[in-house]
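Colleagues,

Please find the record for the two-part complex below.
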Amino acid sequence: MGSIELVCPAGSPAMLEAAVEAGADSVYCGLRDETNARNFPGLNFDAGELAQAVTDCHRRGAKVLVAINTFARAGDEARWRRSAETALEAGADAIIAADLAVLAHVRSLSPTARLHLSVQAAANTPEAIAFYAETFGVRRVVLPRVLSAQEIARLVGDVATEVEAFVFGGLCVMAEGRCALSSYATGQSPNLSGVCSPPEAVSFERSAAGMTSRLAGLALDQVPTGKTAGYPTLCKGRFAVDGEASYLFEEPTSLNAMGLLAELRAAGVHAVKIEGRQRGKAYVARVTRAFRSAIDALDRGESTAPYEHLLTDLAEGGREIAGAYNKRWR
Amino acid sequence: MSFELALGPLLFNWSAEDVAGFYDRMAGESLVRRVYLGEVVCGKREPLNAEVLARAADRLSAAGKEVVWSTLALLATARDRKQTHRLVEEARLVEINDVSALPVLPVGQSFTAGPLLNVYNATAAQILIDRGCDRLCANVELPLRAIAEIHRACPTLPIEVFAFGRLPLALSARCHHAHRFGLSKDTCRFVCDRDPDGQAVQTVEGAPFLSINGVQTLSHGVQCVGLAPETLWTAGIRSLRLSPHACDMSGVIAAYGRFIETEDVQRLHAQLRACDLPGPLVAGYLEGAPGMQSAGA
């Protein structure tokens, strides 16, 4: 591992293999149910696959972090507790959680298990982070993407936990773990069901005007014939205010903060995270390799510039930004 | 069944004059037992009406109402943190809307867990009870069965539901209102004051859908209750929160007062619709359906 830990998404055993092969220091994954926030069909691990993944990773010097980062449903907390048991039995290096209940269940199962606070807890102040550290012994916090790079530097100095920051992939425009836009339209949300803008509610309609992408029947975007309509993630849609349409909340772009790696490292960030468990093994291989090269270059005292444009075509909508890391984005 | 009616914290950026006038009127509303005050959405707004809210608090207390101070929901700056500390240390009764306020709470101080906290199950509720929580306003996403489960496990915790108003759905570091006018949160000129109920947002086909209020996104639809009072009571609900809007709030209060007595859901909806609402009535969440499902559907 270099001066900054590279944490990569593993939506499947094949993706995990690709990430480790490409130089990930740690991989994060979920179990095949709603206890994690990427609860999509065809994704994730069963207990056996997870145990195998941990064995393989440890043999190669990599760590496995298991995301149990949704909010346990009232009356069904046993399901989340079982996921915690599975992760602990498999030998996971850490469990990433957001719900007070899940954190408590993990702690009651194991007084020493390493707990990471998920971005879904939206903990962006020293007080919030201290609460989780003191109450549950959380050792690392994944920062919500609402802070600028300078604010992250200040925060790192104010907290006793390690800090992990997203550097690539899809951006949540809204504070993670506190967004009900999806459930307002579809009845399902990251907190209720581990999904946002679920596939079951999506439809694409072709007409003379072009292609309309819909969520729960609501038109979220319209593109002329010949262009590709993106997946209708709610907050990335086009909306009208006073008759004027725009990408009101955010353009359908992706985060690429590779250019900020040096600054983040100087700020004391312990680990950087790639988003995209649902993006597949080719994606994770490319992104991991690019960030591995960039971190290694940084450690050799070289510039990360040669690696910065390697990933442009992977960005959603073909556009990348530094998002909330740049204060002007607010 | 003695339900309480509570006025939620004002979510919108009203003028000092409108705020003062509103709370003067509310002081005279005998059906309202509890009033939440305070800036929940944007720390930049807090100084604008701090004085008028302090006077409103005195007025409301003198009128026999229980006044509860609500904290900010998404803290962004050092100033936000200082404001939150001060509120939590000075107020007698507080509502917490962000975990940041928890460790700053004086030892032994009780609090209301606000609807913008993530309490989805009994264990989370119990953890907060152990820290001093003595009332829970349910997160708007929670279906009735989840509320009932929490009630079963924590039977002495009174539960409040968001029973009227545009639903708070999301918060962002980015100010949507400011961006509409080519500004940013730092240079906003408080343009959110143009929309006392939030600015309506439609889909590209013109279907009304959401509304924006500074950094907050709300529903366009106006939440109401679609279930009988007895059903709510059995699930542990003891208080109905009415979120202030620039509509006939006295009419809304009277409609809910009558609903508690007559148990007539249809009549409640009819009377609410006559109150000059900013959007159509919705009631999906409590029934486990999409939040935007029409009331009476």
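Chain A touches chain B through 66 residues (CB under 8 Å).

Comments are welcome before we finalize the supplementary table.
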